[in-house]
Amino acid sequence: MADVKLVVLPRIHDPRGNLTFIEGNQHIPFSIQRVYYLYGVPGGATRGGHAHKELQQLIIAASGSFDVILDDGFERRKYTLNRPNMGLYIPQLVWRELENFSSGSVCLVMASLPYSEDDYYREFQDFKNAAQPQQNKRGE
Ligand code: TYD
């Protein structure tokens, strides 16, 4: 599966609770240029359903839980995120779908680039056409 990675983030725990932090190029292999978050997602809703040409992301369940289904053009894998100090690193050219959001969950995303609609593949076949030659070049 491409270079997808589960990243354990630092957690400073004391009697007042937990603190987790993320530094660009330290805990993740990119500079953070954008942060966004999904919240108030109704039960049964699916988010995502696209891939990115250049964008790299780290996805965190800041509260609650949800599933992230990833497809690199060859293989499909499901990750359940349910810990605020666990991030899922997603490199470019990976199709993602997010589903099974628990009530009150918050999906926090660190992104390597500002928002650009031109960076999206919103059709699975367009993504697949782009992803497969890349991987064949790498001999996978
Ligand atoms: P989209 O990326 O399709 O949402 P998701 O993957 O979470 O299901 O974005 C939904 C809408 O929000 C779309 O119209 C683009 C807009 N948007 C921005 O304007 N800026 C952003 O940073 C993001 C992530 C989305």
Automatic annotation (TrEMBL):
Domain of life: Bacteria
Pfam families recorded: FdtA
Domain Sugar 3,4-ketoisomerase QdtA cupin: start-end pairs: 3-131
This protein's name: Sugar 3,4-ketoisomerase QdtA cupin domain-containing protein
